[in-house]
Amino acid sequence: MTFTLGSKARSAGYGLAAFDQIGSTNAEAMSRARDGERGPVWFVTTEQTAGRGRRQRAWIAPRGNLASSILEVMDVSPGVAATLGFAAGLSLERALQKLSIEANLRRAGAGPLRYALKWPNDVMADGQKLAGILLEAEAVAGNRLAVVVGIGTNVIAAPEGTPTPATSLAALGVQIGAEELFAALSDAWVEFHGIWDNGRGFADIRKLWLERAFGLGERVAIQTGAATVEGTFDTIDESGCLIVRTAEGKRAAVTAGEVYFGAAASVGAA
């Protein structure tokens, strides 16, 4: 198979740049934006050799995994652009749900997969990390903002030694190819990007995200630099911050950090 856009993405005018192998789809997308590309356009590969996750961690996609980045150039502030990551999580979750229904029925002795969205940027499957999302933005000519949303999905293999245990679709018994997943993702992106509507629809995105939130109502510990915030995952607010209800009953807003739930919260807080 080769990469193709879904029918909705083609109708919406999205472009596509597919690579047999590339260092980083995010880096390529931002380089094109600096050179004048205004998108919207997808950059995809099944083999990424120099990808990055949050906090500059390596995100290597061996052949068969899906590394995809969408470039959108828009008239929004960086703070508003940051909320687009929640629409990305919803897009991937929708694509996975759509493609997994029949595959789940063929998982011998196993029930349907449960996908969930872990703040701020992970997609989980059966409690393990299946995908990560990295959003980057730069100002470009015309006082506009080039926003690149990278979505890396473990299709055939998962990295080891990650802070959150990782898995792949293949390990879970779901036989979906990277090309098939990308076509569904590109169509789902059209839907949720439209709902997001340059940030004007984030209230709707927030509601949909919370319905799929991993660890909502559970014990959580967030490492933010040298400090650790502990309590219960209460919600996310109107700007996408994680709201923790502490043992004292106070509500603390967290903008970034390493998040640990349940039993792992004790380890993360140690």
From TrEMBL:
InterPro entries: aa-tRNA-synth_II/BPL/LPL (IPR045864), Biotin_CoA_COase_ligase (IPR004408), BPL_C (IPR003142), BPL_LPL_catalytic (IPR004143), Transcriptional_repressor_C (IPR008988)
Record keyword Ligase present: yes
Catalytic activity: biotin + L-lysyl-[protein] + ATP = N(6)-biotinyl-L-lysyl-[protein] + AMP + diphosphate + H(+)
Coiled-coil spans in chain: none
Transmembrane intervals: none
GO molecular function annotations of the record: biotin--[biotin carboxyl-carrier protein] ligase activity
Keyword tags: ATP-binding, Biotin, Ligase, Nucleotide-binding
A Pfam family it matches: BPL_LplA_LipB
EC number: 6.3.4.15
Record-annotated BPL/LPL catalytic domain positions: 1-197
PROSITE patterns the record matches: BPL_LPL_CATALYTIC
Name of this chain's protein: biotin--[biotin carboxyl-carrier protein] ligase
Organism whose genome encodes this protein: Bradyrhizobium algeriense
Lineage, top ranks: Bacteria, Pseudomonadati, Pseudomonadota, Alphaproteobacteria, Hyphomicrobiales
